[in-house]
Amino acid sequence: MQVLLQAVQQYLSTKPFDLHALHLFHLVVKHRSFTRAAREAGLSPSALTRQMQSLEQRLGLSLIQRTTRSVEVTEAGKFLATEAARLIGSVTSALDGLHANFGSAKPEVRVSVSRTLAMAHMPGLFHANHQRHPEVVCRVSYHPSSTILTALDANETDIGVLCPPSPLPDTVRVTHRFKDRFELIAPAELAGKAPLKRQDRLKVWLQAQPWLMLDATTNTGKALRRWMSRQHLSVQPAMELDSFDLIINLVASGFGLALVPRRALALYRRKESIVILPMAAHFEREVVALTRKHRKLPLHVERFVENILF
């Protein structure tokens, strides 16, 4: 037994990094900043730099290229970063399960929601679980979809809710999906001038109006623009935003027209200030709830997933 133990210790001592070094590398890639990564790790930037230099020397590979303005990750670094996120996520998941099953802290579900979802989408996510399991703490954050997918891989979130890219990464699975239909809305005063009886005249009128559009870098923003192109509806946005709730409020204040989820209008109280304009066709996006594949979810997270109401 002593001989075997020595052999194991010798084997581990020859490995180019341990979980701590892998975690530090993951933080540098996540933040693309030695300063921010060091702050999260509780180290000085110089100490973190030495750790990364040691890691590269032991691997014999360049992982990170640091300039005065940013941190660039090499191809080898990107490969290691992907595997590191999965490995760290698995370890974190095991520790979370340990605390959830044997610790005294309240169980917690971390939900990352895309910025392109509106407040009216939230009750379907949280209401049933809150009623049935009030002891579970929900920690909710808003992020771009790409950030949510990365967080799922690294076990920094349990559930992601977003408009999915195509294709989805093979590391996640869809637990729920629904179609989100959009409506064209206008300020009441402006809508009174719309030629509603003729679709051809209406389309010309629409293209002459100011528009509020969702950010073109989002999955929904890209899909919406492709759909508008197919409808031969060419507009130049007066404003681009990342929140449908804000867009609806600005339309009500007279800033222009917008295409917004029908569901997002449900919670808006000043409905007399907005008019839904008729359209021959309607844009629909898909919204999904995601968890990571190949990872057994803690019981309280499984229950939360089961209680999602869409």
TrEMBL record:
<dbReference type="InterPro" id="IPR036388">
    <property type="entry name" value="WH-like_DNA-bd_sf"/>
</dbReference>
<dbReference type="InterPro" id="IPR036390">
    <property type="entry name" value="WH_DNA-bd_sf"/>
</dbReference>
<dbReference type="Pfam" id="PF00126">
    <property type="entry name" value="HTH_1"/>
</dbReference>
<dbReference type="InterPro" id="IPR005119">
    <property type="entry name" value="LysR_subst-bd"/>
</dbReference>
<dbReference type="GO" id="GO:0000976">
    <property type="term" value="F:transcription cis-regulatory region binding"/>
</dbReference>
<keyword id="KW-0238">DNA-binding</keyword>
<feature type="domain" description="HTH lysR-type">
    <location>
        <begin position="17"/>
        <end position="74"/>
    </location>
</feature>
<comment type="similarity">
    <text>Belongs to the LysR transcriptional regulatory family.</text>
</comment>
<protein>
    <submittedName>
        <fullName>LysR family transcriptional regulator</fullName>
    </submittedName>
</protein>
<dbReference type="InterPro" id="IPR000847">
    <property type="entry name" value="LysR_HTH_N"/>
</dbReference>
<dbReference type="Pfam" id="PF03466">
    <property type="entry name" value="LysR_substrate"/>
</dbReference>
<dbReference type="GO" id="GO:0003700">
    <property type="term" value="F:DNA-binding transcription factor activity"/>
</dbReference>
<keyword id="KW-0804">Transcription</keyword>
<keyword id="KW-0805">Transcription regulation</keyword>
